[in-house]
Amino acid sequence: MQQYLQLCQHILNNGHKKEDRTGTGTISVFGYQMRFNLQEGFPLVTTKRLAFRTLIASELLWFLKGDTNVRTLIAERNYIWNEWAFEKWVKSSEYMGPDMTNFGLRAAQDEAFANVLEEQMQLFNERMLADEAFAAKYGDLGPVYGKQWRSWPAANGETIDQIANVIEQINKNPDSRRLIVTAWNPAEVDEMALPPCHTFFQFYVADGKLSCQLYQRSADVFLGVPFNIASYALLTHLIANECGLEVGEFVHTLGDAHIYSNHIEQVKEQLTREPRALPTLHITEGKSIFDMTVADIKVEGYDPHPSIKAPIAV
Prior knowledge:
Elements: H1 2-14, E1 16-18, E2 26-37, H2 52-64, H3 70-75, H4 82-90, H5 103-109, H6 111-130, H7 132-138, H8 145-151, E3 152-153, E4 159-160, H9 162-172, E5 180-182, E6 198-206, E7 209-220, H10 225-243, E8 246-260, H11 264-271, E9 280-283, E10 297-300
Parallel strand pairs: 7-8
Antiparallel strand pairs: 1-2, 2-8, 3-4, 5-6, 6-7, 9-10
Helix pairs in contact: 1-11, 2-10, 5-6, 6-7
């Protein structure tokens, strides 16, 4: 995973200081590309531990099922999208708990508040699972990735299943230059809890191998990008498995690639660590991508350095 570490170092060396919507501040570069040969191992960052099956695999399967409610993820102990649903809850007139204004930034700076936030988040998770009406109201994130991938709203009132369509086209016309899925829907961006960061991806078939290129408009390099790399490498494997192909490359093209100001020390710590051998991915062969569960996906030989914690900018 030297490509990822080189990106981190490139931003530290060449990044521009920029403000952002969260108020945290970043150092940022514009336009960067990494290439990963998926034949050489599964690109799961080894300089810190990532929860592959709990977070990465379950989130991708959530997208592929067209789901947009965090209740499904919480049931699988995946809390990666919780901050955005929790923010909707604490900003509502029904919330009567402690003041949660700017909870992400405050938790990073105030240990006592971080404990209060953890307690409130736990209560939120419990209620999401126990109260279906509450989950429907506060757990839905709007028309985010899963909705756009599986139910893009067409002009005639029907919906378009982009994932099913691209699989059909790979099978029927693998040389097509239109093997594209997009999550960026300008008509619905304002209804989303978070506009798509990984905006669209394109497949390419050559020599019996499937490659994928992702364009990511906004890339949180310390927290988000390692997950994005693994998620789209996994997606490439799943689509290749569905279409009877081998895997080729995952090409990751970044727009605004940034390190948040409160992640800089964590990035520097990660850069002191030596990358280890990449793990191997195993998925259930012959099973439809639409029927996959987390139990069908596993990595072997993953021996990373310990995890490094950092706050999420919401």
